[in-house]
């Protein structure tokens, strides 16, 4: 698979579509109309090759074309309405979409019948190409940039090979694993139910390989290490790829970094055996940061990258890298990403196409303690836009969150995500949605939040970036 956006191709019959009942009925109708005896069950057991090839078993050569025309006319009424999806077909297509991919169906079936059949089973691919069989499928596979082609027949494996795609064979048709492998299958699965997990692993492998390539290109890196899941994984993978000597972790120390995060960051880096530096940053010296407008993160990230750039040079490291992932790049309003990019910071996770979900999956592979760590944005993100960011406000938010977490723990109420938002004269508490009714009814718990005139619980629960809703 290349580094281009993922494209997955599928065969149709006995891969996505089970039309055997309708095919048998269609052959029965043709037999009744022509007087030619046809074993529909036998014909349905040999699905894969073009229709004309099967009809040649029952009709003289000069009658095959007419029989094929009749078959296709009858198929609309006798087969399409009773078409069924193969087990796992919908989830397989959804899995491709989840990976940000496109779906292309390449089949020997007449294209218009393929489209009608897919509509009948509720599957909407991006592209449907009909009338192609075996190696001829390779032309469409190559034309549409298909990386992976999935089918149940030996001919599908030959088509995938001809088109330069990774071939996935399914034993849902007339060919077993040995026959599919002999025809060139790179992978053989028992059915589409196994496909989503396989695909997730295959795409992750592909993107991790791209990450290693990108890091190797960079050569040596100073990782902006906040302690969160993204930068933690980037740091660990960089050390694994480049060696600890070519990697340094930098955790910026300022009032916006919770003390607990700094302690956890120290322990994580120590376990990797990587050098850890703790430069101080002075966001408070930047008027744009203090003003706390919608672009506050721009000034914060500008301070960070302008601090880390010279530090990297002093350490003999070629690049500053951040943990920006592929989801961040499409998440809408992210002025901090722009600031870092303008100052030359590299984004290896983004360059490799790694999403947050994939970062967590890869972190689990490495056994990192941060694999399932909740998001932990800087303390300034808790202060409503337009309210000046001051050390005292940051400390007030940090103390409030620590106190509330302790109160919930004492009440044996586990909470994954928790924020205390500073709205000026009042605090708004965001917690896991299922905990909202309990917290709303327990003033003894919310009273742990001090320093505000009014305390309220957000009925919608925790949401990353909820302050942007106030813009």
TrEMBL record:
* Entry-linked CDD domains: LarE-like
The entry's keywords = Hydrolase
MF terms per GO, please? hydrolase activity; sulfurtransferase activity
**Per the UniProt entry, what species is this protein from, by scientific name?**
Pseudofrankia inefficax (strain DSM 45817 / CECT 9037 / DDB 130130 / EuI1c) (Frankia inefficax)
* Cited Pfam families: HAD
Tell me the InterPro entries matching this sequence: HAD-like_sf, HAD_sf, LarE, Ni-pincer_cofactor_biosynth, PGP-like_dom2, Rossmann-like_a/b/a_fold
Protein name, per record = Haloacid dehalogenase domain protein hydrolase
């Amino acid at each position: 698979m290349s580094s281009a956006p993922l494209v997955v191709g599928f065969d149709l019959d006995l891969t996505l579509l089970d039309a055997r009942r309708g095919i048998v009925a269609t052959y029965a109708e043709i037999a009744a109309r022509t007087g030619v005896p046809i074993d529909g069950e036998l014909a349905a057991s040999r699905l894969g090759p073009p229709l004309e090839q099967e009809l040649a078993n029952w009709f003289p050569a000069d009658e095959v074309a007419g029989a094929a025309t009749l078959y296709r006319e009858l198929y609309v009424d006798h087969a399409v309405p009773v078409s069924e999806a193969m087990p796992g077909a919908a989830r397989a297509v959804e899995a491709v979409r989840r990976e940000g991919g496109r779906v292309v169906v390449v089949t020997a079936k007449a294209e218009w019948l393929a489209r009608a059949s897919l509509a009948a089973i509720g599957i909407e691919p991006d592209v449907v190409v009909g009338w192609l069989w075996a190696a001829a499928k390779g032309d469409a596979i190559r034309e549409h940039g298909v990386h992976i082609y999935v089918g149940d027949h030996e001919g599908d494996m030959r088509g995938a090979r001809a088109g330069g795609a990774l071939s996935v064979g399914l034993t849902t048709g007339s060919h077993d694993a040995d026959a599919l492998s002999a025809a060139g299958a790179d992978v053989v699965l028992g059915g589409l139910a196994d496909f989503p997990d396989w695909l997730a692993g295959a795409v992750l492998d592909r993107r991790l390989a791209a990450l290693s390539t990108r890091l190797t290109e960079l050569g040596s890196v100073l990782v902006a290490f906040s302690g969160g899941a993204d930068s933690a994984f980037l740091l660990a993978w960089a050390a694994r790829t480049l060696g600890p000597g070519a990697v340094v972790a930098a955790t910026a120390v300022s009032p916006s970094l919770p003390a607990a995060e700094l302690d956890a960051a120290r322990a994580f880096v120590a376990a990797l055996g990587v050098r850890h530096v703790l430069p101080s940053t002075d966001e408070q010296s930047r008027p744009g940061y203090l003003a706390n407008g919608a672009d506050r993160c721009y000034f914060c990230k500008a301070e960070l990258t302008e601090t880390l750039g010279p530090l990297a040079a002093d350490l003999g490291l070629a690049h500053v890298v951040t943990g920006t992932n592929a989801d961040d790049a499409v998440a809408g309003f992210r002025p901090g990403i722009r600031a870092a990019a303008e100052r030359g910071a590299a984004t290896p996770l983004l360059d490799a196409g790694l999403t947050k979900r994939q970062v967590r999956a890869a972190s689990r592979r490495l056994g990192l303690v941060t694999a399932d760590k909740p998001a932990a944005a800087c303390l300034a993100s808790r202060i409503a836009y337009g309210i000046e960011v001051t050390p005292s406000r940051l400390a007030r938010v940090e103390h409030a969150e620590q106190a509330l977490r302790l109160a919930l723990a004492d009440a044996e109420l586990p909470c994954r995500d928790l924020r205390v938002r500073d709205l000026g004269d009042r605090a708004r508490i965001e917690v896991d949605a299922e905990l909202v009714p309990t917290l709303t009814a327990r003033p003894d718990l919310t009273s742990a939040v001090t320093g505000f005139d009014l305390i309220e619980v957000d009925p919608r629960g925790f949401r990353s970036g909820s302050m942007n809703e106030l813009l």
